[in-house]
Amino acid sequence: MRDGVVGLLAMLGGAWCFSLIALLAAELGSGRVSSHKFQPFELVFWRSFFMLGQTWAALRWAGVAPLGPAGARGLLGLRGLCGVAFMASYYYSLAVLPMSDAVVLTYTSPVLTAFGATFLGEAWHSLDFLGSALCLVGVMMISKPPILFHLLGLKEGNAELSPLGLLAASAAAVCATCVYLIIRILRDKDVHSIVFVNYLAMAAVITAPVLGLAFEETWAWPSLWSLVLLLALASLASLGETMLAVGLKLESAAKATSMNYVQVVFAFCFQRVLLHQPSDWQSNFGAGLISAWGIVALVKEAAFAQDQVCSVSNKPLLKPPRSGPAR
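Structure for EamA domain-containing protein, as requested:
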């Protein structure tokens, strides 16, 4: 199987893990599964605490240095800090903006990544551009950002939003873009995929308590059931982040990150099936757009891989001897 297909499948698996993380985080943060409502940075700390144990165990079992190659540690540390900055700015934007507006602004990161990847010498084909545009439209149809729908006359209401919230959501998109590009830059540096996750966990364990204190969060010792859910959250995060790193190492940044939009479709399905929340034709149409691009991208990569196999199999292994005059 071609690396591009494996990369897209890895990104798809990562999107599935991240959508489950969002579901668990929403349940823990709402207080529906325990008497304590977990605060944003409290969740980040516990998730990263368990992640750190899992990544160190996995790296020890694989015989890989937890800090990675010496020449790549600076960028790896920057990857961890960018990941923490993403979580901090994204959680802040969710606190002061309508969730739909925060999501749409944050999900501009695949487009920013594709643009930034051109400076790394990666091509951004017209089909990739079209797919990213369709996915972004799909996200908007599902989340229905009030400011956009108000301007288009599709939704009434006050479109005034917090300038700091808009800045935070935009910063989250930039931080996510930096994470993706750093992974692409280090793809040839022999950095194990779990090492990327390890740096995120280390950075978050150190900074989450500081940020929680700065935002005056109230933390509490979790119950046994909450610890089980937090462990599940960390396991999904470790798996999802690892698959993200694998996908970005095997596929171009533009195409790989566009698969992140599938998270919105998964969240939409959870909303309908698990949470029994209603939807409308706009949400259904948006989910269809995103799903269609995911299918097209996978079929395109599979067809390209098949063409490569056929071209190799039809190529003669040895050149026929030159015919010449008999002697």
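The mean pLDDT is 77.
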